[in-house]
């Protein structure tokens, strides 16, 4: 007999400094003492967002001002099957005060200091390490010298992640460029993702690999030996396959016309939102003709952030 699914809204409160909030489960509840993202069950006829606002007010006495739909996670516990609808909450009113005997702690991505985590919440921690902007290299248009100059400026300005993608270069030339970029980025702790070449990513000690959509669809399992694996997708089937393989993130596009493809097919924000709204377990970046100014729109439509090519290197 199939169990009914309990729908839960969960809030990932994120401060401007990047720290996020965890709460402990109070005595008397299943998994008492475990840590989780605060939230609670949807009431009949209630939307996930409405439930989130109600639960966070009841649990910690705050009023949610800005919340972005984010990831969906389904988990089977011994006592219930739950489907969690996660939101990133970036603005709220009021001081956080425990209302149900729980504890709250602020944590930094990738540096958890409390345990144990409630199992359904653990995969969400991975997504919190990802930036809202994924910058994509553009040596092809800028030239190597100018690109490296702009990269140095972005590194000193706080760039966190970079995807190195230069399909015009032969593999040996690309490897030489990658070595230079990795050497420049290393002192800043920037994670560099190599496009389409898992073997080269492993060889150079890069943070991971980003797969082209045909590569993604040809895979039956996640590439081994790489910390981070992402992929380009253009629709629901590819995005679902990336999720099944346990990839860490995906690009979804093209959102808007681009200089290189001015007449190509585009999703628009409506098409992007329709695909992402099916609920996926991995963060999704909007890509195609965007700038950092499109980040709020991407998040409002269910995206994790924006992937930028030309706009990442504009003055």
Summarize the structure.
This protein is α/β, with parallel strands linked by helices. It contains ten helices and 15 strands. The chain has two domains: 121 residues, Nucleoside Triphosphate Pyrophosphohydrolase; 181 residues, TIM Barrel.
The shape, in one word, is globular
Contiguous uncertain segments of 5+ residues: none
CATH classification, class level of the largest domain = Alpha Beta
Second rung of CATH, namely the architecture of the largest domain: Alpha-Beta Barrel
Which helices and strands appear, and what pairs or packs with what?
Elements: E1 5-13, E2 20-24, E3 35-36, E4 39-41, H1 48-60, E5 63-76, E6 81-93, E7 104-107, H2 122-127, E8 133-136, H3 139-142, H4 144-156, E9 161-164, H5 171-185, E10 191-195, H6 198-204, E11 208-211, H7 213-218, E12 228-233, H8 236-244, E13 249-252, H9 268-276, E14 284-287, H10 295-300, E15 305-308
Parallel strand pairs: 1-6, 8-9, 8-15, 9-10, 10-11, 11-12, 12-13, 13-14, 14-15
Antiparallel strand pairs: 1-4, 2-3, 2-7, 5-6
Helix pairs in contact: 4-5
Structural write-up:
This protein is of the alpha/beta class and 315 residues long. The protein has 2 domains: 5-125, Nucleoside Triphosphate Pyrophosphohydrolase (Alpha-Beta Complex), CATH 3.90.79; 133-313, Aldolase class I (TIM Barrel, Alpha-Beta Barrel). Helices cover 28% and strands 27% of the residues. The chain has 10 helices and 15 strands. The chain has helices at residues 48-60, 122-127, 139-142, 144-156, 171-185, 198-204, 213-218, 236-244, 268-276, 295-300, and strands spanning 5-13, 20-24, 35-36, 39-41, 63-76, 81-93, 104-107, 133-136, 161-164, 191-195, 208-211, 228-233, 249-252, 284-287, 305-308. β11 (208-211), α7 (213-218) and β12 (228-233) form a beta-alpha-beta unit. This is 8-oxo-dGTP diphosphatase. InterPro entries: Aldolase_TIM, MutT-like, Nudix_hydrolase, NUDIX_hydrolase-like_dom_sf, NUDIX_hydrolase_CS, NUDIX_hydrolase_dom, ThiamineP_synth_sf, ThiamineP_synth_TenI. Belongs to the Nudix hydrolase family. Keywords: DNA damage, DNA repair, DNA replication, Hydrolase, Magnesium, Metal-binding, Mutator protein.
């Amino acid at each position: 007999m199939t169990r009914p699914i309990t729908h839960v809204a969960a809030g990932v409160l994120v401060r401007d400094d990047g720290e996020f909030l965890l709460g402990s489960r109070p005595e008397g509840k299943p998994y008492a003492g475990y840590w989780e993202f605060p939230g609670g069950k949807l009431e009949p006829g209630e939307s996930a967002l409405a439930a989130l606002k109600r639960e966070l007010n009841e649990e910690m006495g705050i009023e949610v001002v800005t919340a972005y739909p984010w990831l969906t996670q389904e988990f089977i516990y011994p006592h219930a099957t739950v489907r969690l609808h996660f939101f990133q909450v970036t603005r709220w009113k009021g001081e956080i005060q425990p209302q149900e005997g729980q504890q709250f702690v602020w944590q930094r991505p990738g540096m958890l200091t409390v345990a144990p985590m409630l199992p359904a919440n653990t995969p969400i921690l991975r997504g919190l390490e990802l930036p809202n902007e994924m910058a994509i290299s553009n040596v092809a248009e800028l030239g190597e010298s100018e690109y490296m100059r702009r990269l140095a400026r972005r590194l000193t300005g706080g760039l966190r992640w970079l995807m190195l993608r230069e399909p015009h270069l032969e593999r040996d030339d690309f490897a030489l460029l990658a070595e230079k970029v990795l050497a420049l980025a290393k002192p800043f702790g920037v994670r560099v993702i190599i496009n389409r070449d898992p073997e080269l990513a492993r060889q150079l000690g890069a943070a991971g690999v980003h797969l082209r959509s045909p590569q993604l669809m040809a895979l039956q399992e996640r590439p081994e030996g790489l910390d981070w694996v992402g992929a380009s997708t253009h629709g629901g089937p590819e995005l679902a396959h990336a999720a099944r393989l346990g990839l860490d993130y995906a690009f979804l596009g093209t959102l808007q016309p681009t200089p290189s493809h001015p007449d190509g097919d585009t999703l628009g924000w409506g098409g992007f939102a329709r695909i992402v709204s099916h609920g996926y377990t991995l963060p999704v970046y909007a890509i195609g003709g965007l700038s950092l100014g499109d980040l709020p729109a991407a998040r409002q439509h269910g995206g994790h952030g924006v992937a930028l090519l030309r706009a990442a290197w504009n003055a």
